[in-house]
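Good morning C.,

I know you're traveling, so I'll keep this short. The sequence:
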Amino acid sequence: MADTGTADPQAASVVDRAPVAARPRKVASIREVGRRETLVLGATGLVAVLVLWEVAARAGWINSLITSSPSGVATAAKDLLSAGTLLPAMGSTLRLFVLGFGISLVGGLIIGTLIGWYKRANAVVDPWISILYASPRIAFLPLIAVWFGPGLLGQIVVVVLIAIFPIIINVASGVAAIDRGHLRMARSFLATNRDVLLTVALPGAVPAVASGVRQGLMTSLLGVVVAEYFLGNTGVGGIIFQSGLTLRTGAAMLGALIFAVSALLLTSLLKAIEKRLDRWRV
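The tokens, ready to paste straight into the viewer:
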């Protein structure tokens, strides 16, 4: 008859000595719980703030004319949709963002790679980048309006002027900071300069590139708001500007909410892309 009252000490010692890698399910479950808890806590905090904001507005603790309320923002969204102005404004803003950020991304990657990899190119271009990046670029808005007009072209120039420099600087520093030992090893195998750039330098610079793209993304949204404010008064930025002038704070906060949600979604998308690029790096 089997003894069920005592445990085999030898078997227990085997379990205790089992490596961590042999028990991945427990570790994975702990990580999943952590992510779920973070999501629940974040959603709870967001809902709590919205509820308190609504209660404060309805109770008269805050001036709803100045700060609006969640229900006021929802009403403004309904009114703008009914008037047929919200969706065209969002389409105009999306087009400006895609064009401005797209040009900034391509140009920033190319210029940053060139000046980070070629010292002569860096010597020629770096002074201009330093001057433009350190200068208050918003001060160029009147000149941009004169040179390119207050329409879409001028707005794209504003977005690119604001967004491209973080990408250039991060990409250049990432490419230039590659481990020299890796470069010497690649060249010892008779790799060409192009091969070293594509297989060693760029994969190794992925964290810096991702950081630059993330900064460029955020500054692109800022550039879109600035461009729509001051050049053409169009898109969601135009709605914010016009609503602020007429004290329609619900519509103004709706525009700000659209930009905030867009930034959150784009940041999440970039994190997913960064994970895929990290595999290429490995």
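Safe travels,
E.
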